Amino acid sequence: MMTAASIPAASTGGYADYLDGKTVAPEQGDYYLGRDGMPAEAPGRWIGDPDALVRVGITPGRVESGELRAMMEGRRPDSPPEAPTYLRNAGPDGERAGGLDVTFSAPKGVSVAWALGDDRAAIEAAHEASVDAALDYLRETVELTVRYDPASGTTPDTAAHLHAAAFTHTTARGVGDAVPDPQLHTHVVITSVERHDGSTAAVRSRPAFRAAREIGAYYRAHLAHELRELGYEIAPAGKDGRYFCIGGIREDVEQAFSKRTIEVTRATREFRARYGRDPERGELRDMAVTTRSRKQLPRDRGELDRAWTDTGREAGTSREQIEQARHERRAPTADPARWAQRVEVAATERRAIFTDAELRTAALEHAAGAGLAPRNALAQRHELREQGRVLDLADGRMTTARVRAAEQDIDRRLTGMAADPAQAIDPAARERGIATVEQRLGGELSPEQRTAVETITGPGRASILIGPAGTGKGVVIDAAAQAEREAGREVYGVAVAGRTAQRLGEASPALEARTRTIDSFVTALDAGRLHVDQQTTVYVDEAGMGDTARLAPLVAAVDERGGRLVAIGDHRQLPAIGAGGMFEHAAGTVPTAQLAEVRRTQDPATREAWRELREGDPAKAMAHFHARGDLHFAETRQQAVEHAAHRYDELAQQHGHQHVALMSDASNVEIDTLNLRVQQLRHERGELTPESVEHPDGHHLHGHDRVVWTEPMRLDGQGPRVENGQRGTITTADPERGTLAVQLDAGRTVQLDGEHVGALRLAYAGHITREQGATVREGVALTGGWQTSREGVYVQASRATDRIEFHVSREDLDSPDDEQRVRQLAARVERSDAQTPSISQPLNDPYRDPGEQRGAERVERYQPPRPPERAPAIDRAPEIAP
C-alpha cells in the first residue's frame, strides 16, 4: 500500500533527524540496532534523475548528514548555512513546508518471505525497484506542481523531475523492549520538484493524496511482477483480490508476524476507550508492556533472526518450507479474462460512471493477482474499450456495458410495467384499507396521504412514492398494503438492509412478518420458496439506496411473474453504496406520488432547516442549528468524538439507548472509538456485568451491552434468521464457554456460541448508512470532515423528533473563528454524493450502446434471458456493514 502525508515546516528538523537517526552503515555489523538501541536501517539514497539532483546541489547516491534537512528547508545543500541559497519561494505565511512523505509498504507475506527466506537482497531490490517505478508513475500522471501561462494563468501540471530521498526500513516501529515485526517499507521524502521550464518549486500534496490508491496499486503490481521473476508464486488476496499474497505463506503465518502491530493497536484502542484520547509515546510503551510477556530486545542481527525463526516455527512454517514452495511453484500464468471481469466490476463498485483515473486504479489493483505487469495492465484497459466492455460517455467519463445494460433493462421493464393496463385496486377495497389504518392511528390520513395511496394502488404494475424524512411514508405504505390485502392480493416488503426491512414491517403492520432483504427475496424466488404472480405486490423501501446490482434482478423477477412493484424512498437522502441512481431516474417516468408535510417534528423552524438541507441550501440550516446551540465546536476531531460520546451517554441515561442515536459520517475506526468509549463510561458506572466474552477484534462484550448484527445469521432451532442490522441487548455473557444470550429489540432471545460472536458489534454508535429510516427522540452527530455531504447531514439532522446536536472539530474547518466555520461547514454540506446512472448520459459512440437504436445502423437491444438461465446483470454487492 501507499500512504502520503505532508511535512509541515515546523516538523522539518525533527523528521529529518528521525530518518537520519534510524540509519547506520551496514558494514558496522549492527544493521538492526541504532544509536538509541532500537532497530535501525540502512542509509537513505537520493532517487530521481542524477542531472536534476546535481542542478540543486545534491551528489547522487547516499544521503549525507545535513543534506535532507537542507532540502526540506528549501535551500541548496552545497550553500553555506550562514548565507543560504534558497531553491524555492516561501509560502504566504513566510514558511517553506518540508515536503511530502510518501510511504510504500510491502504486503505482509513479502515481509515474512524477507525475514525467513534466503534471498533478502533480491527481495529488497525488487521492493526498491517497485518504489522507483511507482515514483516515476506518480511524476508522469499526477499534477504535483503548476505552470504559468501569461494567457491562461496558473494551471496544474506534472513535474519534469522529483527531488526525493528514499529510506528503506525492514521492521515495524518497535514499542518498549518488544521484538519488532518484520515490515519491509520505504519512506520517500519528496522535498521539491523541477518544473518543465527548469524552475524548482514546492510539491503540491493534495493531488498526491487523491492519487494514493492508484500509485499504491502500481507499486504492488510492479512488486508482484518482480517477485514472480524471482520464482515466487503470487495469488490474489484481500477484498475482491485487490492485493496479493506469496505462495507457501499462509494467512495465519502472516498474522503471527503481525502480533506486535495487533497488540499495540488493541492497547491504543483500550487507552482511547478508557481516557478519551490517544496515548502519548511513553504511555503507549508502558501500557504495551502489560499486554505481553516481557522479552529481551535482540542485541544483534543474529538474535533478531533467531527470534523471527522461532515465531515462524510456532506458526508452523520455516525458511526451508518457504524456499521449497518458491522453487516448486507452478509456472506463472497470466489470466487476462479474469482480470478483465474483475476490472469491470471494480470500476463500477461505487458508481455507474467513472473516470479514466478510476479505471487505471482498477486495472492496476487487479494486475498483481492476474500476473500482469503494471504497464501491460494499463495498456489492456484500452482493449476493454475496443471490445465494447467499457463504454465512453459523451462527457468524457465512462461506464461498463454490463452496468448500462442492467440500467436499460430496469428502465425498460419499469416503463412497460407502468403502462400495463392491469386493473387498479377496487376503490372499495382501498377505502377499507385506509379505514383500517385510520382506526389503528386514531385519526384520519391527510389529503396528500390519501392521494399517495390512490396513486400507488392505481393502474399499472409499477409506481413510486417519494417522501422527505418524517413525512409518514410508513402510514401510506401500510394503507396501500391493507388495501391490496382487502382486494385479495399478496404483499411483501423488501429493502437493501435487513434492519430497514424489519423497520418496514414495524411501521406497516400489513407487512408484518412479510419483509426480507432484496437479496434473500430474489434468492427465495429463484429457489421456489416464495411465489409471486399477477396477484402480488412488492414494496421496496429506501429504494434510493438500492444499487443497480440488486434492483436489476428484483425488477426482472417481479416483471416476469406479472407482479406489481412499488418503490419508496427519497433521492435526497443517502444514495446507494454501489452503482445506483435508478430510483431518481425512474421517478416521473412511472406514476409517482410525493409527500411534503413533515410530521416527525412539530417545530416549524426545524422543519424549515430540514427542507433547506434537503434542497441544497445549507447556509440557513447551519445558522439555525448554531443559533439554537446545537452546533458544538471542539479543537480536534478526537475531542469532538469525546464530547459526542459523553453527550450520547447522558441522553441515553435519560431516554434509553433505543431512543437516542449516536451517528458519524466518518470511518468505522471512529465508530469503534465511539462505541468503546460509551461502553467504558457504562462500565465505570457499574451498568455492565463483570463477566464478558472476548470479541475477535480484541475488545470484550459484557452483559447489558447493546449490540448489532453485521451480517445475517441463521441460528439452528431458534426461529427466523437474525438480519444484518438488527439490534439487541446482551442478557448473559459466559466467559468459560464463550457464549452470549442476546435479547433482540423485537423481543425474542437468541443464544450465540463462540463462532458467532464475531458477527456482533457494539451498537451505541453507528454510521449514518445504518440510521437512515430510523426515528429517535434525540440525536448526536459527528460531521464536518472530508466525508461530509448534503445527503449525510440531512439524514443526521432529520432522525430525531426532539433535537439533534452536531459535534464538529475546528481542525476540520480551517477558519479563524466559529462564525466563519459555520459558513465553511455549510459550504462543505453543499457537496452532493447523489448517484447518477449511466443512461442519464448519451454514449460518445451511440452505435455501441447495448440497448439503443441510433441512426441507420441497428444495435441489437439488450434482452436478458429468461429463468432459469437468467443471470443477474451484475454481481450483487454484499450487505453493508454498520
How many strands in all? Answer: 30
Number of domains: 4
Query: What's the tally of helices?
Result: 31
- First-residue to last-residue Cα separation: 25 Å
Radius of gyration: 30 Å
Largest sheet: 6 strands, antiparallel
Shape: globular
Helical amount among residues, as a percent range? 25-40%
Average pLDDT, all residues: 86
Which structural category fits the helices and strands? alpha/beta
Q: What low-confidence regions span 5 or more consecutive residues with pLDDT below 50?
A: 24-39, 288-295, 853-882
> Beta fraction of the residues?
15-25%
Features of the shown structure:
disordered C terminus; Rossmann fold; alpha/beta; six-stranded antiparallel sheet; six-stranded parallel sheet; 882 residues
Structure description:
This protein has 882 residues and is an alpha/beta fold. The protein has 4 domains: 2-327, no CATH class; 336-387; 404-594, Rossmann fold, CATH 3.40.50.300; 617-829, Rossmann fold (3-Layer(aba) Sandwich). The protein is built from 31 helices and 30 strands. The strands form 8 sheets. Strands 1, 2, 3, 6, 7 and 8 form a 6-stranded antiparallel β-sheet that branches. Strands 15-14-16-17-13-18 form a 6-stranded parallel β-sheet, sandwiched between helices. Strand 24 (727-734) and strand 25 (739-744) form a beta hairpin. Helix 19 packs across helix 20. The radius of gyration is 30 Å and the shape is globular. The chain starts with a strand and ends in a 53-residue tail after the last helix. The relative contact order is 0.08.
